[in-house]
Amino acid sequence: MRVTIRFIDGEIMQGTSEAATLSRMGFPVMLDGSNNRVAWVSLASIKYVLFKDTVHESGDGDPRDSQGMTKIVLHFVDGEIMRSFKDDTFSQDGEGFMLRFWDPEQNGLIRVIVSLHALKAIFFVNQWDSRNDDEKLKNPAPSGVLQPTNPPPVMPAPEGS
Q1: Tens-digit pLDDT profile for residues 47-90
Q2: If exposure means fewest CB atoms within 10 Å of the residue's CB, which of 20, 84, 85, 98 is most exposed?
Q3: Would you say residue 150 lies in a domain?
Q4: Could you tell me the pTM of the whole model?
Q5: What order of strands is seen across the sheet that includes strand 46-56?
């Protein structure tokens, strides 16, 4: 399955993996276009893994937005904040949380594993922004607080020894 691994330090690695969870031992990935047969990625460095081949419920926007589901806001140790919903795929499995993110590039929901080691907290909220209208006008939300931040560019995989 095609995966994109986002690291806590901002690096991005792409490849394929048969792993479906984050185990205590790490996450195996076969890298694209490299000399490496497999890389065993440490859990301590993983922020999240995107399973790009798992697009579900394609459309113009996240279909869960109108379904009254509990909203979740993920605060990462590097300061990034992302949001999603507590749908039927949300669960803790191994050393991570399984959930789905809306991918605007693919216009669909994709499966994601978020590493427990990369999280500060997960907040379960009723609405994305609980401030009243006056507060929102006086103090607009900082960039990236209510929307996922843009990842850095993909870096080439390092060659093995």
Answers
A1: 999 987 767 667 777 888 888 889 999 999 999 988 999 999 89
A2: 20
A3: no
A4: 0.75
A5: 39-41, 27-31, 12-16, 2-7, 46-56, 108-115, 96-103, 91-93
Give the Cα separation of 128 and 146 in Å (integer): 7
Distance CA 150, CA 110 (A): 17
CA pair distance 15, 41, nearest whole angstrom: 12
Q: How many domains does the chain have?
A: 1
The token pair at 138 is 């006086």
The C-alpha atoms of residue 28 and residue 3 are separated, in whole angstroms, by 11
Structure tokens at 83: 């949001």
Q: What is the pLDDT of residues 116-152, one digit of tens each?
A: 999 999 999 988 877 788 887 887 654 333 344 444 4
DSSP state of 158: P
Flag whether 129 is in a domain: yes
